[in-house]
Amino acid sequence: MTSHLQPDQAKPRMLLTAHPAYGWFWCARIASGMAFQIQAVAVGWQIYDITHSAFQLGMAGLVQFLPIVLLTLPAGHVADRYDRRKVYGLALGVQGLATAILALGAWGNWLGLPGIFTLVALIGSARAFQGPATQALMPTLVPEALVPKAIAWASGAFQTASIVGPSIGGLLYAFGPAVPYAAAAGLALAGSGLVALMRQERAVRPRQPATFASLFSGIHYIRAHPLILGSISLDLFAVLLGGAAALLPVFARDILHIGVWGLGSLRAAPAVGSLAMSVYLARRPPQRQVGRKMFLGVFCFGLMTVVFGLSHSFILSLCALALLGAADTISVVIRSSLVQLETPDEMRGRVGAVNSLFIGTSNQLGEFESGVTASLWGTVPATVIGGLGTLVVVFAWMRLFPSLRDFDQFEKKKAS
């Protein structure tokens, strides 16, 4: 029988392996993720080694957060007006060069704390452009039906890097901070090269001209869509309160007494749980009661933060962090799928910019908040109170965003 389907109506290739551009994206995700994790371990340990101050660890988060606040909205417009591959690749290249300077400074012992903070701010600036470009680029590499699976596998790639990267960073730091910095610089530059090999499969829609109104159109779009607003604001406040990543050097040295290698293990533990959950969700994406599963994931994230804060056992701490990472991945995959599938392509850069701003706020500003509260109340009380605050946010958001709480299927939302 002769098929009456036109070429553009033919069934899309429904395996991710059939889309080479996504393969290069996945490899670049691993390389850039490893670079960031190795650099983060080295920066955190070097700053704490120099200052012995939880407050200064929090300052490292703040100097990464400020460029995100200032540059993310313009970066979203850049992602919607220019080749997203070039923006992504250039951002990785800048991160690689800045980390190379950190390596040279550590090797020659001429880069003090202000210089470290300056380069960390430059890396944060590059990541401000990387986030929107990455989020907007990925859905153009695969058919829409594969976006949830692609997001899960991309999350798995990053978490794989987050498992290997901190361990490598901790081991390399034994030879001095210059060694992990040099490794991170090489990986970031390699990721930039991999991005250049990508080819988009679907044509990008016409771009709007740059205006003051269009710069903030991503914010207006999110405000008009409660599902997206609720999901990304839930992540913002939950991680802002419950994030203890900035305090891991304090736990490693002063509470668990496990040294720099143990710090690498602590940083890797959430990624182990996240990778396991990413693989599971890639094979079995959420089908029903998607909103409730997202809230359950954030609730477990807060609960495991409390357990980690109270733990004085290295094994229990690792288990709590692994479960924390698995729970967080449920929220990440559902939130990212909502943002990508509910946003037209010509708006994905600007909406992704706002999403990146929320993520950056929850991570970097959360590190600053953790450092300040730990310096005021102590490391353990600050971590436990933050975890309890996350639980409060979950129940508050279930009442504030009932449409998100009752959201059932991605397919139904797309068909409506």
Tell me the total number of β-strands: 0
Structural domain tally: 1
Largest sheet properties = none
What count of helical segments does DSSP give? 17
Helix content: over 70%
CATH architecture: Up-down Bundle
User: What overall geometry do the principal axes of the alpha carbons give?
Assistant: globular
| C-alpha Rg (nearest Å) | 21 Å
The percent range for strand residues is under 5%
Order of helices and strands: HHHHHHHHHHHHHHHHH
Keywords:
416 residues, mainly alpha, Growth Hormone, Chain: A, 17 helices, globular
Summarize the structure.
The chain has 416 residues and is mostly helical.
Give an overview in words.
The protein has 17 helices and no strands. With 416 residues, the chain is mostly helical. It has a single domain, classed as Growth Hormone, Chain: A (Up-down Bundle), CATH 1.20.1250.20. α5 (147-173) packs antiparallel against α13, α12 (290-310) packs antiparallel against α15 (379-400) and α14 (348-377) runs antiparallel to α15 (379-400). The chain is globular and about 50 Å long. Mean pLDDT is 79; it is low at 1-12 and 412-416.
Task: Summarize the topology.
Layout: H1 20-51, H2 54-81, H3 84-108, H4 113-137, H5 147-173, H6 178-195, H7 212-215, H8 217-223, H9 226-242, H10 248-255, H11 259-283, H12 290-310, H13 314-341, H14 348-377, H15 379-400, H16 402-405, H17 410-415
Helix pairs in contact: 1-2, 1-5, 1-6, 2-4, 2-14, 3-4, 3-6, 4-14, 5-11, 5-13, 8-14, 9-12, 9-13, 9-14, 9-15, 10-11, 11-13, 12-13, 12-15, 14-15
